[in-house]
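OP here, attaching both records as promised.
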Amino acid sequence: GFEEQGSEVKRTLLANNPGVVTPQFLAQYDLLLIDRIERELSPDEAAALEAFVKDDGRGMITLIGYNFDNGNPAPERNRANTALAPFGLAYEGAYFGNAVIPTFDQNHPISKGIFDVNFAGGIKPVDVGNQGETTSFAKVAMTDAGLAHQTAMAGGRVIVWGDEWITFDSDWQGYADVQQFWVNMVGWAKPQDFCGVPQ
């Protein structure tokens, strides 16, 4: 996992933990992974996420498709969308993709060299707000499976991945490109260091 790659990872549960997402809490991190979201974020929490990405230039990756509610995507989708709304992004529609391999755009840094990754029972990511620049980097059939979003100002980046299987050890073992896909996503979404040319 991430620890072996030299990254420190800390999981924070949202259930029974109201108001935990604050600017002070987020200041410890460069990149947030939002998965298995257990409740909707409050307006204050969503505003803290917005500032983390847009003002501090940090990154966020969201995952979905855990199917907690007997095939009803709405509760999970609504919870995740509270984190995405500040960026004009969302998950939309029903679960789709039955253990298929997405088609990855070989011209995008996130998906370059990525071919073998599982996608099963995901939810379509969409850009509803046109607040920044959004590119689709993977498709399942004709449906977007992954979006890369650069916020409008000199801010950070958001990746909206339409599935969750890439978080499971079985997929790290069973699909050749899952680890490299994570490396690419983290590399694209983490704060970008812009170095000036020495004069």
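Record two, same layout:
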Amino acid sequence: ENEGRFDFAAKFGVAIWRFWLLHGHFTEGRQWMEKILHLDPTPTATRADLLRCLSDFCVTQGDYARARSCE
């Protein structure tokens, strides 16, 4: 069941991240990306997309150390 939740949440997060970024919802987007990533630690292409999105939020907020850890 957790796998299905991760897949849905991950696809949603990747789809909406640009909205959060363009409208200045950096903290909200970052929090959601973190929550989604905690649902499943398995390395996948979708997880890589989420980490890229999270990294964008971190850079925007000046948290370069966390952005680097997303690589």
